[in-house]
Write a structure and sequence with these properties.
The chain has helices at 61-71, 75-82, 124-128, 159-165, 168-195, 198-214, 222-254, and strands spanning 19-20, 23-24, 33-34, 39-44, 58-59, 83-87, 94-98, 111-112, 115-116, 131-135, 141-145, 153-158. By secondary structure, it is an alpha+beta fold.
Length: 255
């Protein structure tokens, strides 16, 4: 799964149809993948510019749960207050991204001065920056360096050390699980979208939002809840498919 960023201080105007689970759907990685013992460097002015003018900070369900736990608020409440939801053009899955504050010139809603107010629970895409992540269907995780135009102090580090500094390895298994779940669900949703009439498709999307983002208690561990929600979702989708089939059979018999 890829996450991409804009250059510093560039305002991005994205339509919902352009945003998917992996950020912008027209993004193609051109930078080489980096080995974990490989060194890289980038310049940082410490100005918080990478948190301004951004509409492409896509959250995973784990990201939302972490923020909810940090704020001691239900995930749905956090999403309504600080995020914007849409349906991915490619994946057809729910997509949640941080909603910039218009009154603050497009700043991230958690930017206070030049600092992140939820630094200990910041989304993965923010923790990684200026690195970005790719996850394959078989769970292979890779990283690469994104271009920046920040200027300022030059920071050099090895990939593995940089990831450890921001606790990325501790959450990597969960991020892989999330990515694989989404890739698997894409195939399921594509099939059901072709089968369902609009009313059943809307119900399916409601179930997906609940299973992926909202049906969580911030006071409990995330992974067990994710697995429980996936079992629940599987049952709910089967119920909807059965209802659609029965409805189609009734319609045919009435003709």
């Amino acid at each position: 799964m890829e996450q991409n960023h804009s250059q510093n201080r560039r305002t991005i105007m994205l339509k919902d149809s352009q945003v998917d689970l992996c950020g912008r759907t027209d993004f193609t990685r051109t930078a080489p993948l980096l080995a974990r013992d490989e060194a890289f460097s980038f310049a940082c002015a410490g100005c918080g510019g990478c948190c301004r003018g951004r509409e492409d900070i896509v959250l995973s369900g784990f990201d939302l749960w972490r923020i909810a736990a940090r704020l001691r608020l239900p995930p749905r409440t956090v999403a309504r207050a600080f995020c914007r939801g849409s349906i991915g053009r490619v994946s057809r899955l729910p997509v949640l991204r941080l909603a910039p504050l218009k009154e603050e010139h497009g700043n991230c809603p958690f930017l206070t001065g030049n600092h992140c107010a939820i630094h200990d629970a910041e989304p993965l895409v923010c923790a990684l920056y200026p690195l970005a992540q790719e996850i394959t269907k078989d769970g292979q995780v890779s990283y690469f360096l994104q271009p920046t135009q920040c200027g300022g102090q030059v920071i050099a580090a090895r990939v593995g050390d940089y990831l450890t500094r921001y606790d990325v390895p501790a959450r990597e298994a969960t991020d892989v699980r999330w990515a694989q779940v989404c890739m698997e669900l894409e195939d399921t949703v594509e099939r059901l979208d072709a089968l369902f009439e609009p009313v059943f498709a809307r119900r399916m999307q409601e179930k997906l939002w609940q299973a992926l983002y909202y049906r969580y208690d911030f006071a409990k561990e995330y992974r067990p809840q994710l697995e429980e929600n996936l079992l629940w979702l599987d049952g709910e989708l089967k119920k909807l498919e059965g209802m659609q089939m029965r409805h189609s059979t009734i319609e045919k018999s009435d003709r």
